[in-house]
Amino acid sequence: MRRTSIMLVAISALAFAAGAARAAETAEPAAPSPDGPPQIVVAASTQDMLGTATTSSEGVITRQEIERRPAYRVGQYLEAIPGLSVTSHSGEGKANQYLLRGFNLDHGTDFATFVDGMPVNQRTHAHGQGYTDLNFLMPELFGGIAFTKGPYFAAVGDFAAVGSARLSLVDSLRPMLSLSAGTVGDRRVFAGGSVALRGGTTLLAAGEYFHLDGPWDNPDNLRRFNGVMRLSHGTAEDGWSATAMAYSGRWNATTDQPLRAVEQGLIGRFGSLDPSDGGISQRLSLSLHYARPLSSADQLTAEVYGVRQRLTLWSNFTHYLDDPVNGDQHAQNDRRWIAGGRLALAHRFATGGIEQTLTIGIDGRFDAIRVDLAHTRRRVLLSTDRDDQVTEASFGAYAEHKAQWRPWLRSVLGLRVDRFQVVDQDLVRAVRGHEHAALWQPKGSIILGPWARTEFYVSAGRGFHSNDGRAGLVTADDGSTSLVRPPLLVGATSVEAGVRSNLVHQLTLAATVFQIDFASELTYSADAGQTEAGRPSRRRGLELSAQYRPLPWLELNSNLAFSHARYRDGDPATRFIEDAPGFIGAAGVLIDNLGRWSGALTWRRLGPHPLTDDNSQRSPGYGEVNLSAGYQLTQRVNLRADIYNLFGSRDDAADYYYVSRLPGEPTAGVAGISAHPLEPRSLRVTLMATL
């Protein structure tokens, strides 16, 4: 609470200083320094969606916000999305953990992420359904983030029931070199730029090397390489682009550790009971985007992509519970080819003076997957527990109709159908399975206004996530085991209502209430080290968002999200959903072009939440304040300092409650909290030069 108060005082002080600065500017405008940088008016961190939004909870994050936001890891740039928390519980090379609208989305389930039109979420993945690894991205290439919440948008299908994000890439980049170093063994080199070719085509190339040890007793020793080449011509509405991306990463990992091991002195707070945990990841991709107006009323958009991805994770969560001699480390191996694309045609027309747009689209995706689970000791293979060859194909078709019925009345109606087919060859048990499923998803929104720069929204719709295509090994009460395949597609139904207002000059406010029901909740299993299909669930919540720009160089923003999550079946005493946060909050100050200065101060908070379904074990959550300050040394050279965890919070970034066993403990193990601490205060300094 004390840290929160300090943060609020700091924001208030900056706001007061902003007011004083405004008065000074009114009295006597400051003359620009003859040798200083050009004065550029700050752009808003989010685009004004009034008059174009389908819901009060969707939005677009500008490149401006991304450039100024202090982010310890690349996935945390997504925290610019109101109500989204991004954290880590095991190694920096691994996919992050995402939380939104009362959901612990694990590594990405129910939050669909796209980069340059390519879906990032992985189906039937070794470490969790919807696995979303963003380590192949370089922040300098972000063009912006368009995000949605809820299943109200016909153009997105699998994994988008809770939310989605589309990250765009820039077509051009001023040639630049960036060097970074920090206090936790972090070092980074980035170089990139673009050149204009003949005929209006632009070639962009960029690459990075990043190393990070972190605060861990067993250093992460993350080594990450990224490279991008992009050809582009024209605009996003009338042009094309072709992008090749390559990524390779290796790291050690300190997973969540039993708190009793720290209390007994077996390891320190940043220690690990199995220092051989870690991972290797590789990704290659090629994506093509094409857009063309066929006439003044018709717009064609096409996207095609291909991805080759490999991942091995070594993890030991239960330690000596299953194998008292060798330990419980297992290797999760995932190798896959992905190919797919999307085609959409939008037609604008008017009937009886009513402006309308009809969009018809199709999309398809094919995954060829080899996924296995092996028992290992210090990364050495002992036995193979599961080995599957899976092919998974999906096809989706949708139609969306938008109409401006009156100056104060708009509607968006959509219908989507998805069909999935999975073939699973269990190579260990010599069992072959086949499954297919289809799901219809009606969607609709009504928008009233604007009146006095204020709009009201009501939305309802159905969405879904796909489940792991492999059959699970289930043990019956009599001790017998069998392979049981979960439902391939799990439906979700949601409604929400909200308001968005720009009534006060330079102030944007939004409020949304929502409810979302899932037919089956995906929950985390420590034994399997991944998510598993579980009970039906319901969440209700309220989201509040504000953004204020009192000065051209200053922005204040705040996002508060409250939720109530419960299972909808079984004993009321066990209705609490594990790891479902009841509160996610963020607030910040963004400063740009204040003379030579720029920077940001951000506060992020994940509230208390249950760790067990009877609410007998709870997590206090965590809070953190990050600071960024930049100074323009010359017109071409910028110096920047980022301080993470400014007030030295000793909270845990992630915690769980499950059974594990330490040496000498009973063979049945001990149920207890396992936690992954928040990184301590650290400093990262970046020197960037442009040509």
Briefly summarize what is shown.
It holds the Pfam family Plug. With 691 residues, the protein is mainly beta. Helix content is 5%, strand content 56%.
User: Rough shape?
Assistant: globular
What is the terminal-to-terminal distance?
A: 46 Å
Query: Helicity range of the residues?
Result: under 10%
Tally of DSSP helical segments: 3
* Percentage beta strand: over 45%
Poorly predicted residue ranges: 1-43
Gyration radius over CA: 25 Å
CATH architecture: Beta Barrel
The number of distinct structural domains comes to 1
Structural class: mainly beta
The CATH superfamily is identified as: TonB-dependent receptor, beta-barrel domain
Q: Kindly state the mean pLDDT as a whole number? A: 91
Largest sheet report = 22 strands, antiparallel, barrel
Number of strands: 39
InterPro entries: Beta-barrel_TonB, Beta-barrel_TonB_sf, Plug_dom, Plug_dom_sf, TonB-dep_rcpt-like
Domain TonB-dependent receptor-like beta-barrel: 198-646
Pfam families: Plug (PF07715), TonB_dep_Rec_b-barrel (PF00593)
Signal peptide: 1-23
Overall description:
- Residues 1-23 form the signal peptide.
- Residues 198-646 form the TonB-dependent receptor-like beta-barrel domain.
- It is a multi-pass membrane protein.
- This protein has 691 residues and is mostly beta strands.
- It has one domain (32-690): Beta Barrel (Maltoporin, Chain A), CATH 2.40.170.
- 5% of the residues lie in helices and 56% in strands.
- The strands form 7 sheets. The protein has a 22-stranded antiparallel beta barrel.
- β12 and β13 (239-252) form a beta hairpin.
- The longest helix has 26 residues, at 2-27.
- It is globular, with a radius of gyration of 25 Å.
- The protein starts with a helix and ends with a strand.
